[in-house]
Amino acid sequence: MEPRRWLAAAVLMCVLVLCSGRELKAKDAPTYDPALARTLAEYTSAVYTADLTQLFTWTCERCGDLTEGFEVIELIVDVKNCLQAYVGFAKDMNAVIVVFRGTQENSIQNWIEDLFWKQLDLDYPGMPEAKVHSGFYSAYHNTTLRDGVVSGIQKTREVYGNIPIMVTGHSMGGAMASFCALDLVVSNKFCPQSKIVGDWKSSMIGHNPWEELEHLKINFRLKDVKLMTFGQPRIGNAVFASNFNRSLPDTIRMTNSHDIVPHLPPYYQYFPQKTYHHFPREVWIHSVGLGSFVYSIEEICDGSGEDPTCSRSVSGNSVNDHIHYLGISMHAESLGHCRIVTDDRILQYNMDTAGNIVLFKQPGLSVNELHSAQ
Ligand SMILES: *[C@@H]1O[C@H](CO)[C@@H](O)[C@H](O)[C@H]1NC(C)=O
Ligand SMILES: *[C@@H]1O[C@H](CO)[C@@H](O)[C@H](O)[C@H]1NC(C)=O
């Protein structure tokens, strides 16, 4: 009898574990993939490379490992605003990857101090009551980045098909990545006007032109956009966060231990309608255990965006925790400037009147072909 009882107890234990496991999933529906987080952290680390040729040809020190074989299609450098982003094709993931660089100032400390005073000063277009910070918004919407990124995505998808898009970034780059992902999902002006008119004209014969135009507009509202950011600041109010949550339900916002930036601009618990509010879903990397049994876990937080038991449960006082994620460096090898190093191996580049540069190539062309084409 005794062994049977043990068996029954064991079966009961298993059932309990399975049930609670299932319940957790049904309630929380976390879509966190730790392997994807590591891969995207490496893509994000690479965007800090100063040598644009190495970055563009994917030969930089940080290009490789989990990101081996990546093909950069477009590299955008906004010289005036000191911003950088790239778009390309990851064969192993069969996805477009879009990566934004964080702030590149001499002193990250100044930028962080400045974050304390950011006001919610802009109504997000077409989203009643949703407020955001105009500086973060403009860094994506009001610079060369938006056009460059959109054109890079289009070029990649023209060749590789309507594959999923993964948007990522660290710090200020995470804020820009968030506005980009939202833009791709909600904006019906996503496609440059000339392209819409061109496609429309060539396909209008025998069709109702207005129907055709509507059809095209809807098509430019992209599906299959995913966002994962690292150590990003808050960018909008609670209404914005809940709209964001609806538009991009699978978003993951990584925070690391005592990283100061996710605590900024501040969240004022007693003024929930007036304050900044993170969108979900936070995944908090932190250490647990005691003595020699300390290990790092990635904790999936609740759906509120402001889980009091995650990074908000500790003081955000570390810059060092801001510049290392999952053991991967998230800052430039050399300190802050906007150095442009390039050579004539790059096939094509455009410079606008403000001196901004977009490097691009035809998707599918290999780096060796790129070299021999010169
Ligand atoms: C975008 O830039 C233009 C010109 O530089 C400026 O007038 C406008 O206020 C900016 N918009 C936002 C939202 O900052
Ligand atoms: C986000 O969406 C989930 C699922 O619909 C919901 O439970 C959660 O409360 C939402 N969070 C916010 C901040 O809107």
Tags for this model:
Fungal_lipase-type; signal; alpha/beta; binds 2-acetamido-2-deoxy-beta-D-glucopyranose
Draw up the topology in text:
Elements: H1 2-28, H2 34-46, H3 52-56, E1 71-78, E2 83-90, E3 95-100, H4 108-115, E4 122-123, E5 131-132, H5 134-141, H6 144-160, E6 165-170, H7 172-186, H8 193-203, H9 209-219, E7 225-230, H10 238-247, E8 252-256, E9 282-288, E10 295-300, E11 324-325, E12 328-329, E13 348-351, E14 357-360, H11 367-372
Parallel strand pairs: 3-6, 6-7, 7-8, 8-9
Antiparallel strand pairs: 1-2, 1-14, 2-3, 4-5, 9-10, 11-12, 13-14
Bound molecules: 2-acetamido-2-deoxy-beta-D-glucopyranose (2 copies).
One 2-acetamido-2-deoxy-beta-D-glucopyranose (NAG) binds at residues 122, 134, 137-138, 142.
Largest sheet: 10 strands, mixed
* Global Rg: 23 Å
Beta-strand content estimate: 15-25%
Annotation field: number of helices: 11
Terminal CA distance reads 83 Å
> In order across it, which strands form the biggest sheet?
10-9-8-7-6-3-2-1-14-13
Average pLDDT value? 80
SSE string, helices as H and strands as E: HHHEEEHEEHHEHHHEHEEEEEEEH
**CATH C-level category:** Alpha Beta
The CATH superfamily bears the name Alpha/Beta hydrolase fold, catalytic domain
Number of strands: 14
Helix-residue proportion: 25-40%
Class from secondary-structure proportions: alpha/beta
Tally of separate domains? 1
Overall geometric form: globular
CATH architecture group name: 3-Layer(aba) Sandwich
Instruction: List the ligand species.
Output: 2-acetamido-2-deoxy-beta-D-glucopyranose
Q: Can you tell me the CATH topology?
A: Rossmann fold
Query: Which parts are unreliable, with pLDDT below 50 for 5 consecutive residues or more?
Result: 11-27, 189-220, 339-347
